[in-house]
Design a protein that fits this description.
Elements (H helix, E strand, L loop, with lengths): L3 H12 L6 H23 L6 H10 L5 H8 L4 H4 L2 E8 L5 E6 L2 E7 L4 E9 L8 E5 L2 E6 L5 H4 L6 E8 L6 E14 L6 E102 L2 E4 L6 E14 L4 E6 L2 E6 L6 E13 L1
Parallel strand pairs: 2-6, 2-8, 3-7, 3-8, 8-9, 9-10, 9-14, 10-14, 11-14
Antiparallel strand pairs: 1-4, 4-7, 5-6, 11-13, 12-13
Helix pairs in contact: 1-2, 1-3, 2-3
Pfam families: DUF4097
Protein name: DUF4097 domain-containing protein
Organism: Secundilactobacillus pentosiphilus
Length: 360
């Protein structure tokens, strides 16, 4: 067992020079609990041989707590109390790959006002530990927005804010690889041949008035929202959360384990998969086959009134309803196979294990 007095021996000198307030005491308790757990893990795994060594290693792993203590106690130095803005620029001809790693950060992808790539960070307040780190190697631009371990303790108190803006010119035709542990990514007014791949552990990805070549996004928990967006391909995998599409054109490959997929004024083709949830797809123009696979939930599809297409709708435990004038080869409670119009242009196929299918 890790003794509280032993933890106090290591932590009190760190906290001694700051005012004792309710917030600072809560902060101390949060840090002490984390040190206790980390030290015990070190002992259990034999990475430390004594409780003293375990606590020292656990405290050392916290890093420098000066900045969070100054923020909480209100004893900031002038460098910390002010806001910060930083800018860097590169020729788009020299960069073909951008790699972004961020945590607890808002990332904005916007259009460049010229033919340069610009990276801008805004901090409130200015903190050395969260300053964006930028490196270039050959044709790769690497951007790292660090999140010190003590960030988790500041959530109940006063959380620093960091926004990183990446401005891309219209002639940019490279790759973006963005990985965010927690935060938001927005793409707005970007129109170029960008090929983007995004991994988001927790947060949201939003797009507004943009056209790029391809987008592949994996979101563990959060939201995807796109308005007035076009791409050659849109691949989404959202484990838990919602997907909202409005005025979106693409070849779709969209899946969610638990959540809702809602599309309005869609153009394109593709596959939509959900394990548990609802799918609502309102098509303005369909230029290829549409496939929907749902394990449990409601599926509603609205097609353009002038279109002619084949359909194969099957609900193993549920009902199927078609409100269009159609000819049927199969028409029963849980299945409908047939055709709308005389010259079918594409196929609509829906499989729903348990739920309702409605085609209109």
């Amino acid at each position: 067992m890790i003794d509280d007095n032993l933890i106090s021996t290591f932590l009190k000198p760190i906290f001694a020079n700051y005012p004792q307030t309710d917030d600072s005491r809560d902060f101390y308790n949060e840090v002490a609990a984390d040190v206790r757990e980390a030290a015990q893990d070190l002992l259990d795994s034999n990475d430390a041989t004594t409780p003293e060594q375990a606590v020292k290693l656990a405290v050392d792993s916290l890093g420098d707590l000066t900045e969070p203590l100054q923020l909480i106690s209100g004893t900031q130095s002038p460098a910390i109390s002010q806001n910060s803005s930083a800018n860097s620029s590169w020729s788009a001809d020299l960069i073909t790959r951008i790699v972004m790693h961020a945590d607890e950060t808002k990332v904005n992808l916007v259009a460049s006002p010229d033919d340069q790539i610009h990276v801008h960070q805004y901090q409130q307040p200015k903190l050395a530990s969260t300053k964006v780190q930028i490196k270039t190697l050959e044709n790769t631009l690497s951007i790292e927005a660090p999140s010190p371990r003590w960030f988790q303790y500041l959530i109940p108190f006063r959380h620093p804010k960091s926004t990183v803006e990446i401005a891309l010119p219209s002639q940019f035709a490279g790759h973006l690889e963005a990985e965010l542990k927690s935060g938001t990514l927005s793409i707005e007014n970007v129109k170029n041949q960008l090929q983007a791949k995004v991994v988001l552990s927790s947060g949201s990805l939003s797009i507004n008035h943009a056209w790029i070549k391809t987008l592949s996004a994996q979101i563990n928990s959060g939201q995807f929202k796109a308005r007035h967006f076009a791409s050659n391909s849109l691949q989404l995998d959202v484990h838990t959360g919602t997907i909202q599409l409005s005025n979106v054109e693409s070849t779709f490959d969209i899946s969610t384990h638990s959540g809702t997929i809602k599309g309005n004024v869609l153009t394109g083709k593709g596959q939509f998969t959900a394990h548990s949830g609802a799918l609502f797809l309102d098509w303005q123009h369909v230029n290829g086959d549409v496939t929907v696979i749902n394990h449990s939930g409601t599926v509603k599809i609205q097609t353009p009134m002038k279109d002619s297409f084949k359909f194969d709708l099957q609900a193993k435990s549920g009902t199927v309803k078609v409100t269009r004038n159609a000819t049927y080869s199969v028409q029963v409670l849980g299945a409908a196979i047939g055709q709308v119009g005389d010259r079918p242009q594409y196929d609509v196929k829906v499989e729903d294990h348990s739920g309702t299918i409605r085609l209109s």
